Amino acid sequence: MKTMIYYPFILMTAFILYSCGVNDSFHVIDTTPPAPPTGIAVLNGDNRVDLNWNQNYEDDLAGYNVYYSDSYNGRYTLIGSTNTNSFVDYDAANGNTYYYAVTAYDYNGNESDLSHDVIYATPRPEGYDQSIFDFHRYPDLSGYTFNDYSVVPYNDQSTDFFFGTYSNADSIMVWFDSDIQDMGPTQDIYDIPFAPTSGWSPDKSEVAIPGHTYVIWTWDNHYAKVRISNMVSNRIVFDWSFQLVEGDRQLKPRQSPGERKELTRPFSGTADIVTK
To answer: Which residues pair with 260 in a beta bridge?
Structure first.
């Protein structure tokens, strides 16, 4: 419920004016901010982060402010405003981790506390419709490296995975210093949020199946996922994403609200919009 404050001198003035035959209205001062937004979620993309949250339903809601920080308990900087319950951070850089918080504000300039959800994202590069070929027939076009996102020979030192026939089956394979796991059928490249901690293929290969996503643990301790979108004779077509941060298992990712904590409000009043 809105808090209404009536100042004594305003009441006295109104009484005097009324006694003199002058009609005037009282001023009702609204000092109650909207509730902090809830249900914050992020979609971790390529040099961008998409945010959305549950809509507030206050009658005087005017919009939302979006903030980021380099740490959960750090100082949060305003990066933009919106009158819908979604926002895209186009200034997010691949390989950097960002913590996000959202506030709601009303038409009187009252702003809520920062949202309490622990929400972060580490943008990472991704690619689509890449092809590699069976290493038995096209050895120079059968491997792929995430070093520079390019097709390389299957036996190149930089190869992260390659394709070909193995044990009488079309297979996607890695070398002895890497690991691979078939994560099963997925709708798209975004369906696998984190790399697994166990279950890696003991023989470093998985049967290549269109519609399946495979997680790869590279020789230099990075994680990637590869989704086969199509497979024709001697060739697979795939989409991929690669986490630039060493050891970071976050691959996707739509992150649902996690642990809830109180954030320290970084300011009172308005702040300038800045970019990273």
So the answer is: 117
Strand ranges inside 174-272, DSSP E: 179-185, 205-207, 212-217, 223-232, 235-242, 254-255
pLDDT at 95: 92
Check whether residue 152 and residue 239 sit in a common domain: yes
Q: How many independent structural domains does the chain possess?
A: 3
State the CATH number of the domain containing residue 71.
2.60.40.10
Task: Give the tens place of pLDDT for each residue, 223-233.
Answer: 999 999 999 98
Q: What's the CA gap between 90 and 204, in Å, rounded? A: 37
> Is the distance from CB of 221 to CB of 109 less than 8 angstroms?
no
Which tokens belong to 102?
């959202």
Q: In terms of Cα–Cα distance, which of 175, 178, 181, 147 is closest to 162?
A: 175
Residue-level pLDDT at 252: 53
Please give the model's pTM, rounded to 2 decimal places: 0.71
Q: How many CB atoms lie within 10 A of CB 166?
A: 18
Kindly list the distances between the CA atom of residue 263 and the CA atoms of 74, 116, 126, 201, in Å, as whole numbers in the listed order.
Answer: 9, 6, 32, 42
Specify whether 138 is located in the same domain as 224.
yes
Residue 111's domain comprises: 34-123+252-276
**In sequence order, what are the beta bridge partners of 228?**
238
Which ranges constitute the DSSP H helices of the chain? Answer: 8-19
- Residue 196 tokens, joined: 């697994």
| 71 and 4 fall within a common domain | no
Instruction: Specify whether 49 is located in the same domain as 155.
Output: no
Query: Are residues 99 and 159 both part of a single domain?
Result: no
